[in-house]
Amino acid sequence: MACCRDFTRSQLMRNAAAEAGRGLPSVEPGMPTPAGTGLSRRSFLERSAGMALAVYGANRLGLGALREGVAAAASGAPQRVLVSIFLPGGCDGMSVLAPVGDTRYAQLRPTLAIPPSTGTPFAPDARLRWSDPAGGLSTLHGEGKVTVFPAIGYDHPDQSHFTSRHFWEVGATDAHARYGWLGRYLDAAGADDNPLQALSLDSDLSPALAPARVPVAAVERPEDFDFWVPGVDDPVKEPMLEAFGDLGRLATSDPVKAGARKVATEVDTVRRQLAPFATPDGNPSYNSPVTYPDSDFARRLAALGAMLAAGLPLHCVTINSDGGFDTHSGQADSLPGDVKGTCDAVLTFQRDLEARGLADRVLVVLWSEFGRRPEENGSGTDHGAAGTAFVIGAKSSGQMIGEFPGLATLDDDDNLRATSDFRAMYCSLLEQWLGFDSAAVIPGASSFDRPTLVKS
C-alpha cells in the first residue's frame, strides 16, 4: 500500500499537536489546526520509551480533586459508553460493502471488483454484498447489531485527509473549530474532576475529545502506565509513589509548588485506577472471557473491555484502528487484511461485552474521513467523497440509514454521492444514546435529520 503525502502530513501534525514542546509542522494555507492544539497537558513518562499517559485540562481543579472525582464517578450509577473507532486514511467503503449488483461496478474496477459469488448478501439492499474480510461486521449485522450508513459524508466534500478528518472530529465543516465534538459535549455535560470520563486509547489525545475546560486522558494501554524513577524499584517504589500522592494534596500558597503538587495528584489518581491492570513487570494482569485476535488494535479493545468490567468511570472513548486505509496503490494486497483485522476485533469486542454483561451499556461508531473514488487507478483507488460508517452494539437499531446512491450518477468529481450526513449521525448519537440536546454541540443541528440509531 502507498499512502499520499497529505495523509503522512496529517498524521505528523496530529502527533505534534499532542506532544509537548514539539510545536506544529508548517501548515499549508487553508489547512485547519487540529482540535485541542495548545490544550494544557501533563505528561508522565513510562518505563517503555516514547510512551506516555497524559491528563489534559484540569487547570482549575483543587488539590486531591481528581482522585476524589474519579472515585465519586466510579461509585455512581454506570453510564452509557460511546466508543469511537477511526479508520485512518480514508477506507474504501466499496471494499466493505461491495455494490456487486450495480452494472458499473465491474466497469469501474476491472481488477479490484469483488466477485459477486463471494461474501454475504446485504439484506436491506440486494445490490450490496458484505466482502469476506468484513465478515465480523456481517455476522453482527445478521444479529441486528449494526446500523449501516452505506454512503455517508457531507456537502461540498473535501478530499484532503487533514481537512476532512478535522471536520469529522469537530462535528462541523469549520476549519477554525478548536474543540472536538465529544469534547464540547463533555464541557456541557461532563464532570470537572474525572479525567477518565473521556479516554483516548492512543499515545496522543484524539482531537474529537479535545475539551475547553474539563479533564480528559490518553493512554495507549492501561498496562503501559508506570511511574519510573531511575534506581528505585520494589519494595521502595510503591511506598514512594503513595507518598508522592499524599504530598500532592498538601496546601501551599506558592503557585510553583501548587503546580508541582497538582501533577503529583494527577499521577497518583490515574496510577491507582490503572494499577490493577498490570503485573509488576509491566505485562497485562487482566483476562478476557473471549480470545482476541493477535493485533495491537485488538489488544487495546481487550484492555477497554477489562476497564469497563472493572467499573472505571469511562463515558467517551476513542481508538484508532491498525493499518493504513489510504490505498492509492497495492490495494488488493493490503486492504483485505486491514479490513479483516478491524472487523474481527470489533466482533470479538462485542462478544467480550456480551460475556461480561456489559453489552447494553456500550455503543461503537466506526468511521473514516472519506471513502475512495469508485474508479480504480490501476492498482488502487484515490480519495473519494461518501464512504461507509457503522453504529455497532446490542442497542444499535440495526437499520440502513440512507440508500446506496448507485454508480450511474456520480458527483461533479466522479465520486460517490452522500445520502446521509455525519453530523446527523452525531445528533442522533448525542440525543438517543447520550441523552443530550445536540443543538448545544453540533452547529446547525436543527437542519439535520435524526436517523434512528438506538433501539427503543
Descriptive notes:
- The chain has helices at residues 5-17, 65-75, 105-108, 135-142, 161-170, 181-189, 237-248, 255-274, 296-309, 331-356, 422-433, and strands spanning 41-45, 52-56, 81-86, 97-98, 120-121, 129-130, 146-153, 198-200, 216-218, 316-320, 362-367, 387-392, 420-421.
- It is an alpha/beta fold.
- The protein has one domain (5-447): Alkaline Phosphatase, subunit A, CATH 3.40.720.10.
- The strands form two sheets. Strands 1-2-9-8-10-3-11-12-7-13 form a ten-stranded mixed β-sheet, with helices on both faces. A three-stranded antiparallel β-sheet has the order 4-6-5.
- A hairpin with a 6-residue loop joins strand 1 and strand 2 (52-56).
- The longest helix has 26 residues, at 331-356.
In terms of DSSP E residues, the strand content is 5-15%
**Superfamily (CATH H level) name:** Alkaline Phosphatase, subunit A
Q: Please give the number of β-strands.
A: 13
Q: Uncertain runs with pLDDT below 50, 5 residues or more?
A: 16-28, 40-53, 58-64
Give the oligomer, counting copies of the same chain as homo and different chains as hetero.
Answer: single chain
Q: Alpha-carbon distance between the termini?
A: 42 Å
Major sheet strand order: 1-2-9-8-10-3-11-12-7-13
Let me know the largest β-sheet.
10 strands, mixed
- Average pLDDT across residues? 83
**Sheet/helix structural class:** alpha/beta
Order of helices and strands: HEEHEEHEEHEHHEEHHHEHEEEH
- The overall number of domains is 1
From the spread of the alpha carbons, the general shape counts as globular
Query: How many separate helices?
Result: 11
Helix content: 25-40%
Fill in the CATH topology. Answer: Alkaline Phosphatase, subunit A
Can you tell me the CATH class? Alpha Beta
CATH architecture: 3-Layer(aba) Sandwich
- What is the CA-based Rg, rounded? 22 Å
